[in-house]
Amino acid sequence: MKGIAERAGVGRQTVYRWWSTKAEILFEAAITDAVKELIKQPQPTTLEDVNTYLEAVESFLTASPAGAAYRALLGEAQHDPAVAQLVGSAALFDGPARAVLSRGISRGDIPPTTPLDAAMAVLTGPAFYLAVTGTDKLGVPVHALASALLAAIRELSPAASIEESQLR
User: Fold this and answer.
1) The pLDDT of residue 162
2) Does 107 fall in a domain?
3) What is the mean pLDDT of the chain?
4) The CATH number of the domain where 126 resides is what?
5) Which of 20, 68, 114, 116 has the highest count of CB atoms within 10 angstroms of its CB?
6) Structural domain contains residue 11
């Protein structure tokens, strides 16, 4: 905290007035940068939207300083309940994922009955795989992963589940 205060040209008490721990500062910085890095312009198709989102998430988690900070916080959250609560307080990937899914619903590519929380989990699952394993790449082309995830999201719709059960 002393180094942060010195670099900002303020006293330590000023820093502590806004953030009580280094984890809070790191988390706020990661979230601020994540919003800039994860929200992308709408693409012409839902598949391209998903692909662009996945590329942004992969880049954020593997190449961005903010992503490195977020991964460090995820690791610390495994041992520190206060950091776990902090990380759990903001759904970093939900806003951008919800925007991609909402556009897919508007286009008619994703059923409107799809539960968005489950769909966001399917869409962001690879992000957490990257973060937890430390893997730089998923081992499959992003466009193939985007197609598979979009198909899985379509299957989440109650109407899709009914149709599937009727086939059996």
Assistant:
1) 46
2) yes
3) 83
4) 1.10.357.10
5) 114
6) no
Q: What is the pLDDT of residue 21?
A: 76
The three-state DSSP-derived secondary structure of the chain is: CHHHHHHHCCCHHHHHHHCCCHHHHHHHHHHHHHHHHHCCCCCCCHHHHHHHHHHHHHHHHHHCHHHHHHHHHHHHHCCCHHHHHHHHCCCCCHHHHHHHHHHHHHHCCCCCCCCHHHHHHHHHHHHHHHHHHCCCCCCCCHHHHHHHHHHHHHHCCHHHHHHHHHHC
Q: State how far the Cα of 139 lies from the Cα of 129, in Å rounded to an integer.
A: 12
Per the structure, the complete domain to which residue 81 belongs is given by 22-167
Which pLDDT band, with edges at 50, 70 and 90, does 138 fall under? low
Residue 166: the pLDDT is 45
Cα–Cα distance measured from residue 93 to residue 50, given in angstroms and rounded to the nearest whole number: 13
Q: Does residue 14 belong to any structural domain of this protein?
A: no
Could you tell me how far CA 79 lies from the centroid of its own chain?
21
Question: How many separate domains does the chain show?
Answer: 1
What is the rounded distance in angstroms from the CA atom of residue 112 to the CA atom of residue 86? Answer: 32
pLDDT band, very low/low/confident/very high, at 167 (cuts 50, 70, 90): very low
